[in-house]
Amino acid sequence: xxxxxxxxxxxxxxxxxxxxxxxxxxxxxxxxxxxxxxxxxxxxxxxxxxxxxxxxxxxxxxxxxxxxxxxxxxxxxxxxxxxxxxxxxxxxxxxxxxxxxxxxxxxxxxxxxxxxxxxxxxxxxxxxxxxxxxxxxxxxxxxxxxxxxxxxxxxxxxxxxxxxxxxxxxxxxxxxxxxxxxxxxxxxxxxxxxxxxxxxxxxxxxxxxxxxxxxxxxxxxxxxxxxxxxxxxxxxxxxxxxxxxxxxxxxxxxx
Amino acid sequence: xxxxxxxxxxxxxxxxxxxxxxxxxxxxxxxxxxxxxxxxxxxxxxxxxxxxxxxxxxxxxxxxxxxxxxxxxxxxxxxxxxxxxxxxxxxxxxxxxxxxxxxxxxxxxxxxxxxxxxxxxxxxxxxxxxxxxxxxxxxxxxxxxxxxxxxxxxxxxxxxxxxxxxxxxxxxxxxxxxxxxxxxxxxxxxxxxxxxxxxxxxxxxxxxxxxxxxxxxxxxxxxxxxxxxxxxxxxxxxxxxxxxxxxxxxxxxxx
Lengths: 255, 255
Description:
CATH architecture of the largest domain in chain A: 3-Layer(aba) Sandwich
CATH topology of the largest domain in chain A: Alpha/beta knot
Largest interface: A-B, 37 and 37 residues
Oligomer: homodimer
Distance between the termini of chain A: 51 Å
């Protein structure tokens, strides 16, 4: 049974302040809970229906606490409109990062990405393209926001997300001769650009793109050209969509 | 002022049955309303705050009816959590389609895409890549669903969306020697495939991909390879993300 206190605690994890204080985040859904258990993350609590727990047969070490509960209790605790049969409370992992870890990699950096769905989708894209590190500016949306977790579809357990000063990172990358790319309206056509196998690709905010101060530190400005015939129109690409196209273009060349 | 009846009517457009009966759909947000007015679509009603109407100065022909209303009335009529300063009721356009219209084009077909956000994002991607026609199976989500309209970011006014029998379409395309491509787990690597400038690309349902009956009629099976190092993991791409990557790959070759 899920006690009232437990339900209140689970619901409190919708807020970043509470997640940080407790150093845990909420994972919802049968598949995501199973992925959390299989991951390197430490699972503090699993709450699931009898059916879910029978189907999954977790070992005693799967979580600090496993609670069998009713669908009704899950519904009370859940932040989703239509909860499935399980949720979990998982410990936040903090990852160390040095510029040396990035030099032989292709990494993504996000400057003030605000929408949780976009960040989750981008983490999923990173996972698909074998990108280990996603580097977010400190004002970006929190990657442990429940909507990010849902949209990442389990990729949050495999991709490391860091929050740091991107201007400082760009300067360090420059000193380490690691190329830094960014997408800009007036950038070079990505399809005909020279793209390297290693480097950092910066994507910008949904409405405003990359901030001017950071833009100054990005030597390689690229652009996805529109193929629409009437260029006066206001087409645009969502930042997650643009990220997918750019990652595909960087990665296909080394395939 | 927005009367109670008008508010009730506007809200009723959340349902497909009502949209079809009245042959209209709902458009919300300042930018989208302005795009509706500038489009070829016939606007039946604009409801906006005094500020919005002053800023936009629509001509008398912009809409059959323009109503100045309060933010409070807009909030009552709106289907959004945080409505902006305007909404519009716009007439549904039905487009004729023959296979001849497709033979010199690259078009998208969607087999049972269910999520409105995905369809809206795909319409926006089509717009970006200059794709005129999106061909949906009859069981796909309705393109005039308000969530599709929001996610399309105005692209719904430029891209034609059709609902039809995709198996029949695939047969007709075959007779017209128009190549039909589809994405499959066991398809050929898209990066090394021969892709033509004209044709139809079929994308499948979020959970189940392309239905077996339709798959039988798709001669060119392609696949976006994962770059993740550990292939045993359950990475996947969202259908809108996969569509963006495929469109980029088809289009860049003819750039």
